[in-house]
Amino acid sequence: MAITVRTVKRPERTFATEIYLVEIVKGLGLTFRHLFVNLYRHSKRALGLKGLPGSVTVQYPDDPAVLGKRARTRHRLLKRDDGAPRCTACLLCETICPAKCIRITAENAPDVQVEKRAKTFDIDLGMCIFCGYCVEACPVDAIHMDANEVEISAYSRKDMIWNMPELLGDVPKKPSQPG
Amino acid sequence: MTFPLPLNDVLFATAKILFAVLGVGLSIAGFLGWVERKQSAVMQDRIGANRADIFGITILGLFHPIADAIKLLTKEDFVPKMARKPLHGLAPIISLGAGMFCLAALPYGGVVDFAGRAWDLTPIALPMGVPLVLAALAFGVHGIVMAGYASGSNYGLLGALRGAAQMIAYEVCLASALAGLLFIYGTLDFSEAVLWQVRHGVWGIFVQPLAFIIFLTAGTAVTKRIPFDLPEGESEIVGYHVEYSGMKFGMFMMTDFFESIVICGVITALFLGGWSIPGLDLPSMGLLGGVLMVGSFVAKIMLMLFLLMQVRWTLPRFRFDQVLDLGWKNLLPLALINFLVTVWVVYLWP
Ligand code: SF4
Ligand code: SF4
Predict the structure, then answer these.
(1) How many angstroms separate the CA atoms of B297 and B110, rounded?
(2) Of A27, A42, A56, the CB nearest to B315
(3) B178 with B188: CB under 8 angstroms?
(4) What is the pTM of this model?
(5) B300: buried, middle or exposed (CB in 10 Å: 19+, 13-18, 0-12)?
(6) Full domain range(s) for residue B335
(7) Into how many domains does chain B fold?
(8) B45–A56: do the CB atoms touch at under 8 Å?
(9) CATH of span A76-168
(10) Is the predicted ipTM greater than 0.95, yes or no?
(11) What is d(CA B81, CA B152) in angstroms, rounded to the nearest whole number?
(12) A172 Cβ contact partners less than 8 Å away, ≥ 6 residues apart
C-alpha cells in the first residue's frame, strides 16, 4: 500500500488569537448557549411541557441502565434445538480464559454424535475480566455474553460463582445475602 | 469621632459588620458552592448534585452546601507529625480573617436619612478604603505561605511558593489597574467613588474599560480561581493546603469564595456604579432607598460572580510561566500605560 501524506494545516495565530480575549468571548458564548438552552429545556420540562431533555444524564439506579446494542455483559450458555446444552466440554474456553475463572467437568453425553457434555460448568464472575475470549474460542457457539444483565454484584465471593443451570437460565440465580 | 461612642452607633456598626460577614459572606459563599456545582452541570449538559435531601425533599440540590459543612465539621482534623503546630493552625485563620475584613469594608450602601438621623450603610467606612482592601487581600498570601511552610510537606511548600509568586504579580496589576480610575474619581474612599459615579451618571466601566478587563483578570488570579488555580490545583498539581483536613481545609475553601465576593464587590463599587440604580435617587428615599441600595449592590455582586463562575468552567488552566508572563509582561505594562494616558488626558482636559 502506498504511503499517503496528508498535510495538516496549522491553525493560524493571528493577533486576535494571541491576545486571547476574542477566544475567551467565543468560548463563553458557547458555554452560555449551553447553559441557557439547557435551563430553558429544564424549566419547560419542570412545567410539564414536552420537549428535549435538558441533560444527557441517566439517573442509573433510579432509571434503568441504558446498554448498548452490542454490550458485553454476563455470560449465557445456549441450548440446542432439542433443549440440551450446546456445550461439548471441549475446555477451549477454560483454556483460553486469561483469568482462569471457568471450571468445567466433562461426562459422556447420551448422544453419540456429541460424545461429551459438561457435567458442571462454573464461571466465577468475581474473577472474570469480561474479555470475551471464551465466546470467541467456543467452536460450537455454546457461550454468549449477551444476557444484558450488569447487576451481578453479590455480598460474598462465593455468590459471584454462577453454575450451569443458572448460566443456562434454567434456575434463577439465588439473591445474595449479606453476612 | 468622640469616645465613648453612643450605644446605638456601636450596635448599628456591629449589625452592619455581622450583616456583611455572615449575611452576605457566609450565605453567598454557601450558595456559591451550590451555584458552582449546578452551573457547571447545566452548562455541560449534566444534572449536577441533587441527592442530598431532608425528609426526601431535595430542592434542586440546595442542601449540598449544608451537607458539605457537616462533613467538613465532623471530619478528623489531622495535623501531620512534621507540621509546625501553632503556625499550621494560624494559617487558615489569617486567610479567612483577611477575607472577612475585606467583606466588611465594601460599600453596601450610601448614607440614607431615616428616623431623624443619617445612617451610613458601609460597615467599615474609611477614607482609605480601596488601598486597605487591596492590602488586606494581599495579606491573605501570608496565610497561604504560612500554610505551605507549616505543613512540613514539600508539596505544600511548592504550592505556597507558586501562590506567593502569582499573588504578588497580580496584586501589582490589581493596584495599578485601579490607579487611573481612582485618579479620575479623586478619592480612595469606596463611598466617594460610588457617589462620583452617581453624580456624573456614568459607571466606571465606561470611563475605563481597559482597566476593567485588567482588574477582572488580575482579580481572578488573586482569588486563585481557574484559569489561575495553580496554587491549589485541586486534583492534579498538589497545592498549599494538601496537609489540611476538616474545617481548616473548609476555611481555605471559604477564603476562596470570600475573596471572589470581595473582588466582585470592588468591581461593583468602582466599575458598576456600586449601590446605584440608574434613574432612581436612592439616598433621598429613606428606608426603602437603603434596602434598594443593599439589594442592588448584592445583586450586582451576584451577577459578577455568575460571570466569573462561567469563566471558571470555560477556560483551561494556564501553565505557570504563562501565568507569570501574563501578569508581569502584559497586564502590568498595560495597566501602567492606561494610568499614564489617563493622567495626561485628565491633565490636558480643558
Ligand atoms: S470473558 Fe474472558 S475472563 Fe471472563 S470467562 Fe470469558 S475468557 Fe474468562
Ligand atoms: S468452548 Fe464452548 S463447547 Fe468448549 S467447553 Fe467452552 S462453552 Fe463448552
Answers:
(1) 11
(2) A27
(3) no
(4) 0.82
(5) buried
(6) 83-348
(7) 1
(8) yes
(9) 3.30.70.3270
(10) no
(11) 8
(12) A166
